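tmp note - Peroxidase
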Amino acid sequence: MGLSHLTSFIITTLAAASSVSAAATTASKSVKCSTGQITSNAACCAIFPMVDKIQKDLFDGGECGEEAHSALRLSFHDAIGFSIHGKKGGGADGSILVFNSTELKYHANGGIDDITARQFPVFQELNLTAGDFVHLAAAIGTANCPGAPRLKFMFGRPPPKAPAPDLTVPEPTDSVTAILARFADAGFSAKEAIALLSSHTVAAADVVDTTIPGTPFDSTVGTFDTQVFLEVLLKGSLFPGNGSQPGEVLSPLHGELRLQSDFELSRDPRTACFWQAMINNQQYMMSQFHDAMAKMQVLGQDTSRLIDCSDVVPVPKPFNQNIKYPASFSKKDVQVALPFPNLATVRGPAPTIAPV
Ligand code: HEM
Ligand SMILES: *[C@@H]1O[C@H](CO)[C@@H](O)[C@H](O)[C@H]1NC(C)=O
Ligand SMILES: *[C@@H]1O[C@H](CO)[C@@H](O)[C@H](O)[C@H]1NC(C)=O
Ligand SMILES: *[C@@H]1O[C@H](CO)[C@@H](O)[C@H](O)[C@H]1NC(C)=O
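out:
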């Protein structure tokens, strides 16, 4: 154990020993809730029935559909309203839900009104703060997607104080420099930014090209696999809708939309290696995404006052297969020169991806 590790070990141990809060004293034991579930803290018991209600009322009984995708996007747009230098919002505080009349006017929040409108009545029926609600819903929605990691859920955020200001959410028209600067301002490295972008494996666009709502970013939009990292590197040849729109670049497949930001991040020397490392590396992607989301979902929060209620988050179905090139594609269509895993190709003619 090196000196710095030893020092931090001692500090952590002392901190744990001296904080005799209710959270710390019950955390080591497991508790059986009256509803039957096992959890590490009795305070989490009240959340299990809320998870059932959110699954039923928001996610059609547990699907990885549009609401699940949008709940994940919403958690980002809420949390990224934050700066380590201050004055850019309260982070993962639910302000986007409570102050929706302000935050939804921001250009980068285009299309977000669908999910806040769906979430608001469910939020009002539950005894959760807006921050806890938004970030619990994102963890549950993500868990509905096979292949996703089981995200953490920290409980106890206070109500949001004010809306986040404009221009905290990156846009697909932004340069890599601007995107990485914004992530760094919120406390994220370039590697963590790419880890968070794993979310675009369960994503579709409604407003980039309004003539083709629900157009996915990869060919497996209902699975939390690494397919998006592969498909963004394929040579583009077409626009799926009404020609070229702002923030959109050529896509390799009919029915698939490629964001300019994903394209540039996948090829930029500052991020290309992180991007490629995800391809067909399911366990690695899951752990990177899990850790970056754990950080994102408590941005701006006093974590010493939160209780770890991750036990309430459903366990996602696994995805254990190798990913494949979409039909008619192979290594020759990949636009990068670096070493690349050998992958099979789906049989048949080039697909047209169906909207979500
Ligand atoms: C460089 C940063 C990012 C940019 C520029 C970006 C941009 C976009 C855009 C333009 C859309 C489509 C919106 C529409 O037309 O409806 C989208 C969708 C989405 N984004 Fe991002 N995004 C970024 C990072 C993230 C992060 C960090 C997350 C989550 C951790 C995320 C999650 C999603 C999801 C899940 C969707 C799909 C929503 C749905 O299908 O309803 N994005 N993103
Ligand atoms: C915005 O918040 C109000 C309450 O302030 C709520 O009634 C409404 O449904 C919300 N709308 C959207 C689009 O989120
Ligand atoms: C609502 O939640 C708070 C904080 O978790 C808790 O103290 C309170 O007992 C709850 N109220 C009801 C009516 O469940
Ligand atoms: C198609 O795109 C063009 C140029 O971006 C735009 O002016 C036009 O309004 C769009 N058509 C429709 C039907 O949205």
